[in-house]
Prior knowledge:
Layout: H1 12-39, H2 43-67, H3 96-120, H4 124-150
Helix pairs in contact: 1-2, 1-4, 2-3, 3-4
Amino acid sequence: MNTEATSAPRTLQDLMAQACAFEREAVERYTEFADVLETHNNREAAALFRQLATQEARHAEELMRSMGWQQPPAPAAQQPAPRGADLQQAHYLMQPWHALQVALEAEREARDFFAALVRRSDSEEVRRAAQRLQAEEQEHIDMLQGWLAKVPAPPADWAEDPDPPRYHD
């Protein structure tokens, strides 16, 4: 994602609408991860993704409340969004450590997105709001790194399944 190549939101409302859209998309992606992992009876990693989805939903609600919105407006101009958690990274045997790595990558991308807006914005109000959003994403990163410090890294053979799924023709 090249955030430097596009223009920054011009108003606080545009920035917050875009930020809210990002948060809501993160809720959807983390929920999709949880659903996939629950389908494969990986309840531990699924629970972690559900917790992340809940936190992102709270963040979206806080953004809406701060703007006095009942429903967020559509972003004025769609900026290249942080990619977010990529469902292609889901593996039915992934462990919480992997889930945290996926989330950490997504949060770093979001932080970097808002940092780029801070550098590019012509509006002091937008720049200050983007700095707050960047700081919030950094808080998410710090939280995830704290969780990672408590979760053991998986063994090298974590993806080996002694009883792999069988597919019939």
